[in-house]
Amino acid sequence: MATMALRLLVRVALLVSALAWSPRAAVAAAREYAAIFSFGDSLSDTGNLCVDGIPDYLATARLPYGMTYFGYPTGRVSDGRVIVDFIAQELGVPLLPPSRARNASFHRGANFAITGATALDAGFFQERGLGQGVWSSGSLHAQIKWFLEMKPAICGAPEACRELFRRSLFVVGEFGGNDYSTPLCASRPVSEAHELVPHVVRAIGEGLEKLIAEGAAELLVPGLLPIGCFPVYLTTAATKQQQQQQQADAYGRRSGCIKDLNTLSWVHNVALQRRISELRAKYPDVRIMYADFYTPAIRFVLHAEEYGFLKQPPRACCGAGGMGEHNYNIAFMCGQPGSHACEDPSNHWSWDGIHLTEAANAYIAKGWLYGPFADPPILKGEPTT
Fold it and tell me: What is the pTM of this model?
């Protein structure tokens, strides 16, 4: 009995230790970064799309967005913090101001990510008759241009800039999700999205090389989430299934996710990791870290209860008033009239059917910081209480 009680106490202690992870918990293990510069899309945006006011179409800048941590919408497409927020807090860096913010200090970093961003420029899609699916002008290379334009205000002289960037963390991505959604949301076949993979990965690689040329020596490059598990695509596919009588084997037996779309994510991630490997060989003095989005999100679906999430099919916390299996309806999207959020976002991994909850972002950030969801992790060692 004593042995059983001891084992129980050990298990409880381990659980408490895991739950108690908080910013700067592992100071001894932390790398010292002078600043963080972030590039990406809505998974990273901290307000660039609404610094000049909230556009009428932008539901993501209204409550209940921001309800969990900030208590008000900030332009983050989540109920609270996004992954780069958790990374900044753990590294002791202030939350990154959106690069378009006025009267902000960018000496400890800036966030150039903007909702709707693509890896490829808008002209690429316009040439293919897909221009209507691109509604943000902030492609990866546009964001790097914004970064270069900001340099004089950040660090002044070229040598001072190179020294600052050498001691900074550059988070480059995620990119690709909006590129692939452009043909998918235009009801084009998945094969057309696959044709974009080499173009998207090449654009990401070119962006990394531009930043390395500026002095970046530590770069974190996230891959894609398993987009076949997104409620938005699952809802669309359910409608198509009724029309086309799709076969049940189009969905994962255990996950319920769309196989073809998850394969697309997997193909992108493999190609991106191959490109990162090539760049590591080309720039041996530069540390390029691959950040895995796919594995933790799949675990949220398959082993939800281990992360404190409800065991259910992929389902948005904030959405169509509980209607439908996935709680997603384009007419009642989160932030629009007729939608509402679940009582406890912390027990959902999907916030609005497209983006992640703060709880999911926290788990993924920890995996990128300390492993196992990054190669190599940002930090060495383990978080402690």
Answer: 0.89
